Amino acid sequence: MPLNDDQNSDSDSSRLSESTASSSDSEYSRQSFNSDSSSKPSSPASSPPKIITFDELMAAARNLTDLTLAHEIAVNANFCIKQEDFPQNSFAGTVKQIVHKAFWDHLESELNEDPPEYEHAIKLFEEIKEILLSFLTPGANRIQNQICEVLDTDLIRQQAEHNAVDIHGLANYIINTMGKLCAPVRDNDIKQLKATDNIVELLRQIFRVLDLMKVDMANYTIQNLRPYLQRNLVDYERTKFQEILEETPSALDLTTEWIKESIEDELSSVSDESSSSPGADSSSKPIISPTLVLNNGYLKLLQWDYHKTIPETLITDEVRLQELREKLNQLKIIACVCLITNNMVGAAIVDVPDFADQLKRICVPLLEGMNKKTFDLKEALNAIGVQICSKVNRSLTERGLPTLNEEMQSNLMGQIAHIVEENNPISSLIDKRIQLFMRSLLALPSFQKCRPTMPGGLSVIQTEMEFVGSQYASIVNFNKQVYGPFYANILRKLLFPEAPMGKVETETPTN
Q1: Neighbours of 485 (CB within 10 A)
Q2: 40 phi-psi bin (left φ>0, alpha ψ -120 to 50, beta other)
Q3: Is the pTM of this model over 0.90?
């Protein structure tokens, strides 16, 4: 029985990336979501309360995992699986090292016996065979048959009984096969395997490289799956969430509460406006736009306390929304600093080119990582105040103007430091203008074609605001497309309990 691959055809020796480049999506059905993308009804169906069994709860959890993973693959072009190990000095990492060392030491002692004991080695070859077979694409029958023949554990066990196992030959065959199936990035790892003489160390390193190849295979599958998911993501997510709702009728409770709070805020706003308007009819029932209610709910996410659970329909975008909120907080601080500085010394520096951008460049590095628990915002603002004073004085000196005296510097630094205080007027003003921009953005039919006017005081962060706004609008618009029917049903029940089922659905945008 040959232990080399010289007789293999060229098609057998092609790499993973080349042999599967022209494969269709159906060839990856065992690793894809194809089976979950059937054309089920996409609109939410009402479901009576029922007792949830453990199996139903686990099924809902699996659906949520699939939904979250599919969403992440489709919307995050950088999403990939990474090989992660326990930290070396951690308890889990130490236990893993001890167990692995004990296993490989035991294997080495068995192979050094006279005659050698091969039982553990045979089990390793059986595991390696299964891993190699898992890398093959449908139709690779020739190499599949060869792997099964060469790594036939029954045959190897018979050879072991007669002390006739060519363990080095088997290892070389495995390495050669890995070289044909691996991605080019693993070429150097394969070369290192070929240079390893100690059989126990060689087997250990083979498993290490096979683990890397598993990650490569998963990421290759993700890469091929992404275009399919992007084309079908709206229907897929809506169908998956419908399955979750059928398994867990309470799966919209947080979403309902989120919309209910938005309705209450809107009612309060309408009531305030009515009371301030002379001649208003206080007995008439206020008319509230479902679209406005939903948009106000989305705006709440930019100030959401992410220590509490986010509405169920937004779980897939929770991390992105939290990052946008943190970025807006940073931009708000920068705009406040620039506005305070301009109010105090604007007349003296009004004609200095790009002075606002220079102030922004001072703030950005000092506000880096402000979302971390260890970040001290007050300390950062003090440092910003010192550098702003230095920058202003340097600019004034260059133009032959008197510098800021100690009282003015102290005042400027104090106002910057007080930005973090609750109800700070400058902070509140900038926050309202950011909210105004985001609200105007949600009212547009397409942010890409037309953009709302940037409110005063935000010009220094206009580029960043437009970028964040584009990401935010993309998340919101996609969420409306997927969950619009669910929102429409909730809004109908809360706003128009006596209206026909389809009325709110037609009024609530899903684009």
Answers
A1: 18
A2: beta
A3: no
